[in-house]
Amino acid sequence: MTRQFLGALSALALAGVVLGGCQTAEPEPPPEPDVTRPQPIVDPTPPPERPDPGPRLTEDLEPVTHEGKLLDTTFYFEYDQARLAQADIATLAVHAEILRKYRNRSAHIEGHCDERGTREYNLALGERRSEAVRRYLISAGVRATQLETVSYGEERPVDPGHDESAWAQNRRAVMIYR
Questions:
Q1: Pure H helices in the chain
Q2: How many CB atoms lie within 10 A of CB 112?
Q3: For residue 106, what are the domain limits?
Q4: Which of 44-53, 93-102, 149-158 has the lowest mean pLDDT?
Q5: Burial of 94 (0-12, 13-18, 19+ CB in 10 A)
Q6: In this predicted structure, what is the pLDDT of residue 31?
Q7: Is the residue at 167 inside a domain?
Q8: CB under 8 Å, gap of 24 or more: what pairs does 70-74 form?
Q9: 158 pLDDT band (50/70/90 cuts)?
Q10: Alpha-helix residue ranges (DSSP H) falling in 33-118
Q11: In a domain, 144, yes or no
Q12: Is 34 or 169 the better-scoring residue by pLDDT?
């Protein structure tokens, strides 16, 4: 009898395990999180004012003005020279004033030559011309980090002619504000 009782108990336990594994009721889903939309924070303080960017000075050779006057950005040189003309000193002084006032601005100075001379010689002469402008600006208080020079020698003529008039236009240094 105990044997029959144990057999019936085992059969009942096995049926419970089998039927319990076949439960079809879905588990209760987890509660949805409490989602609240963030409200924008209103800052009562106004945004800081931007510093004055200074005169409109761009790379695309727009005219540079100072106190309503057009300011030259091209400086011409005599044949085979890298000495600044006396007439250009006053203009360069105004450029120095602008660059001292607006330290966030910089200038790219290009040195150019006419077609006479070898390519190597003209590259060196163009460099001396751009450096002449750079040295003057530094002596007038502009930070060296605001100035960058490059020489194009005879590679970028303004006037493609082959006479003294064209050559005079091509012997130059050009300032481009950035």
A1: 2-21, 86-101, 119-139, 164-170
A2: 26
A3: 64-177
A4: 44-53
A5: middle
A6: 65
A7: yes
A8: 71/95, 73/174, 73/175, 73/176, 73/177, 74/172, 74/173, 74/174, 74/175
A9: very high
A10: 86-101
A11: yes
A12: 169
Residue 4 lies in a domain: no
- The CATH number covering residue 108 comes to 3.30.1330.60
Structural domains counted in the chain: 1
Conformational region of residue 47, where left means phi above 0, alpha means psi within -120 to 50, and beta covers everything else: beta
What average pLDDT does this structure show over 146-163?
96
Whether residue 28 lies inside any domain: the answer is no
Shortest CA distance to 170 belongs to which of 70, 74, 73?
74
Q: Is 153 exposed, middle or buried (0-12, 13-18, 19+ CB in 10 A)?
A: buried
The residue type of 158 is V
